[in-house]
Write a structure and sequence with these properties.
This protein has 488 residues and is mainly alpha-helical. It is 72% helix and 0% strand. It is found in: Cell membrane.
Length: 488
């Protein structure tokens, strides 16, 4: 068949496109820094795809049509994820401008007490990250505010940053708004909410252990009071109409998720409901966004649509909060969508050329048992995170490399999607030259190796994934009678 290579490349030759990818990514990230995702990484992916196609057509005698078809099929496979990303862009804007996220932050900040600062910081960042779907936004906004509070209370930078990052990445990992969560589920062909529910088995215990550590550390620390929390609360209250009625939006969203309503429908309803609440509770903000001089139906309508599709900015009188309430809308998702499209081309070419199969065959010798398979996936995810220096590319490559193996061995796709998140998403921030580690170290002003020992959630998650696999809890093979099955 023309879809199959006539000559399977060796694992060593198959690594050539990946080595090209890693080398060019290293140079790109050193050159562009955190802006590498704005175009440089995408060009690198297409270049590595070209190298892969060249080897496939000259060495393996694969026809261009077969390579092209594989790329198209890969892109088709993530079409739903791309639509979800666009809706999430609209949702993130509407949740912020409607006052939903500010209300959650406002009430969350009231629970901070010096003795429980670290645990509270972790919880607040987790809640904000779940609501926004972005660990980067959480760390760059409320994380900065919490860092200042912690420093005023006498905590070391490593402990504060560790609590901020642990909470932010917990929220990012389980949020249906997170692009990495959507990416991991789509690459492995796992329904989004099914993926999230299954992740709870490893994620919740990891967070509980983390909170115990931060609670003990906080109780043993003598801290002084600060008025920074009050200042942030006043700024939020002066800018937004803070009311418990806004909590109806996340409650309704949670109900829809619990009832397993398809993710696109759930997210669309949630965004639309938040838009209605924005019209009711925050018309003054919609007028500010619209730029029209008079508050009327036209300014409300224009401001609402801009909230859904474009970048918005609100003046709160507090620089940190200005960054937090700024949104990017649907247009803010375009760099991620562009990256996914380019990565799907690379993955399709690697698969059609037989290179992906050649590389994964090396891992088969370590996969005689479930724990060995999960451990190999975790190790591969971490290795790719170190090599590619980008969590998105690492998620795509790890998912593509192991998808067929999990399928052939009869395991459900949700086991792979969970393991990918446990190994890739949370460890990216622990690597100094990774885009995540580099960005967060710069934003917080705390070196990666300084906060690394205190990012307990990020360190525990991969180990928890392997531990659960060793126990065999809630893990079953297809066509095998399950002793216990997760709902859904």
């Amino acid at each position: 068949m023309e879809h199959n290579p006539t000559k399977i490349p060796s694992p060593l030759l198959s690594l050539v496109p990946i080595l090209v990818l890693v080398t060019l990514l290293f140079v790109t990230i050193r050159t562009f820094g955190s802006d590498a995702l704005s175009g440089g990484s995408q060009i690198v992916l297409l270049t590595a795809t070209a190298v892969c196609c060249l080897i496939a057509m000259t060495y393996s005698k694969v026809r261009w049509k077969a390579l092209e078809l594989a790329m198209i099929n890969n892109i088709t496979g993530v079409a739903t994820a791309l639509i979800i990303l666009l809706i999430i862009g609209a949702l993130s804007g509407s949740w912020m401008i409607s006052g939903v996220v500010p209300t959650l932050i406002y009430y969350g900040m009231q629970i901070i007490h010096p003795s429980f600062f670290l645990a509270s910081t972790c919880i607040i960042c987790a809640v904000v990250s779940v609501m926004t779907g972005s660990s980067w936004t959480t760390i760059a906004t409320i994380g900065i505010a919490l860092l200042g509070i912690g420093q005023a209370q006498g905590f070391s930078d490593g402990w504060i940053a560790g609590a901020i990052i642990s909470g932010a990445y917990f929220g990012d990992k389980i949020s249906p708004l997170s692009d990495t969560t959507i990416l991991a589920s789509s690459v492995t062909d796992t329904p989004l909410f099914k993926h999230i529910r299954y992740m709870m088995i490893t994620t919740v215990p990891s967070l509980l252990i983390t909170l115990v550590i931060f609670t003990v550390a906080g109780l043993s620390h003598e801290a002084t009071a600060t008025d920074q929390i009050e200042q942030c609360s006043i700024a939020l209250d002066n800018t937004f109409h803070i009311t418990p009625w806004l909590l109806i939006v996340p409650v309704v969203t949670g109900i829809l998720i619990a009832k397993r309503v398809p993710s696109i429908i759930t997210l669309f309803i949630s965004a639309a409901l938040a838009g209605v609440f924005a019209l009711i509770f925050q018309p003054h903000l919609l007028q500010e966004i619209s730029g029209l001089p008079v508050e009327n139906i036209q300014s409300d309508f224009k401001g609402l649509l801009m909230t859904f599709y474009g970048s918005t900015g609100i003046e709160t009188g507090n620089p940190e909060l200005n960054s937090l309430v700024a949104t990017r809308g649907m247009s803010g998702m375009m760099n991620t969508i562009w990256l996914i499209l380019c990565a799907m081309c690379f993955g399709g070419a690697m698969a059609a050329s037989g290179m992906l199969g050649s590389i994964t065959s090396v891992f088969l010798r370590f996969m005689k048992r479930t724990v060995g398979m999960v451990a190999s996936t975790v190790a591969s995810g971490l290795f790719l995170n170190i090599c590619t220096a980008d969590q998105y590319i690492s998620i795509i490559l790890t998912g593509n490399m192991f998808k067929d193996i999990y399928e052939k061995k009869g395991y459900e796709s949700r086991l792979l999607s969970r393991t990918v998140e446990d190994s890739v998403t949370v460890t990216s921030v622990l690597i100094p030259w990774n885009t995540c580690g580099m960005t967060q170290a710069t934003i917080l002003g705390v070196a990666t190796f300084t906060y690394l020992p205190y990012c307990f959630f990020n360190l525990i998650s991969p180990l928890m994934s392997i531990t659960i696999a060793a126990i065999g809890f809630k893990i079953k093979r297809k066509n095998e009678k399950a002793e216990s099955v997760v709902a859904g």
